Predict the 3D structure of the following.
Amino acid sequence: MVKLKASTILEVIIALLLGTMIIGFSMNIVVKTAKNYNAVKKADAMFLVQNRFSILSENPKLIQDSIRDEGILLVESLKNYKQSEELFVLEIKAYTAQNRFLVEKKALIKITDESEE
Amino acid sequence: MKSKESRYHHKKIKGGALQYIVALSLLIFFLMGMFILKAHYSNLHVNEVIISERLIDQLSSAKLLLKHQPSLVNKTGQRELEVLDDKITLKSEHWGVFDLVELESKYRHQSKKEIFMLGDNIWEKERPSLYLADKKRYLSVCGDTWVGGLVYLPPLGVRRSYVDGVGYYREKVIQGEIRKSEQNLPKVNEKHLERFEEQWKLDLDGDSIIAWEEVSEDYLKRSFRKRALVFHSTEEIHLRNMSLKGKIKLISDKAIIIYATSNLEQSILVAPRVIFKKACKVNCQIYAKDFVELGADSRLTYPSIVFMNGLNPKKEFIIKGSSEFHGEIMVLGKKENEMPSVKLNSDAKIKGFLYCDGTIEMEGEVAGSVYTNRFLLKTRSAMYENHLLNNRLDLTDLDSSYAGVVWLSEGTKKEIIEYLW
């Protein structure tokens, strides 16, 4: 009888168990990292916010409380800057569909009668 | 049988699934590490961009605020400016009649700086194309003269006239609205007169002062973030084959003469007499007490300044033929019977502002505003007072983006003239 060198049943069970644990653990990290970092989503949101900001700076009448675009929720607000009649604070915040904060843009803009028209 | 046995001995099958799984897990961990690192760095990069955007927004907000609240730069020095959520460091100082402003916004480990020259928004208040003080003389227009926009004239008004047999060709004598002028020109804001005097003083603490005679380089440049480089001489300064760029000031107790081979950018020249030879192309501010001449075919680019004042009699500013001046000209210092004068030779052009508390000999054209007590027109046969012959004066010819100096009142809004380095 020839003896072949191979794994015992115990070794195989431990290996299977370890393999499953490692893969499960890794998948968990991958999903969590992708969710937490969300770099692509943030970059997308940033472009959307920039674009929206330039539109609203030109025409503030187009402002809406919230707007949904490409799965991103944009929340817009326009307030007077201190007591100024011409300067306003335009703020746009971007959230994911799950209401996770992504990016924001806040700056002073000048609104004249011409731009209101 | 023997041969079979030996075959099995040669071909050993290795067991040990545990070793395989450990090796595989190491590989998976390595790949995982790589993935996490990549995700981390791309996130870091996006965050850096977001912070950078935030700093840019802060700076643009601060600039907008400065434009709308000129009082923020009235005081020189450094202070904190609270615009939105973050604090911005504001540093301001005078550079001639303009303001130098440096803004720095910081957030976390990033910071952004900007330095620029701030002037006045001249379009906020009504500006005339012409303000002719009431010296009990009317204005006479001849030839192809065009006076557009708002005009302030003596109560005697305007009439068509003939000069050397040339009449007035147009239908209307003035193309815009006519209002009555006062006996004297509107007074220049005191702060500008103070700034004129400031130019002649050597600030031993604030500036780096060097004797002009010690300069051996032919190319000098100075960042606006540093202290001003001030070159002083008790003798005449001749600028030949030289280039001066940035925060550089030249002060001569006698005269500064600039030749076409020289290049000046944003510098300040201070001397009793400043003479630009033929075909100079420069950009600078000039503060003089006696005489300024811009040679033929020369060009003083935007934003240039000629500011003449002082008690010396008979100040004179001459712009020779085919020259162009883009900026502001202020000629003051009238004494009894001795008036300063500005001579604008034929084909010379001013884009900006011309104020002469004396007489103007006008042969060229002005796209902007002209303030004067009287015009003089010399022909081969005679000399005429308050006559305009083939001249064009119109503020609407001036580009609406032009920013200059509000000389006659307090400016209500500021405008960025240029970004500096």
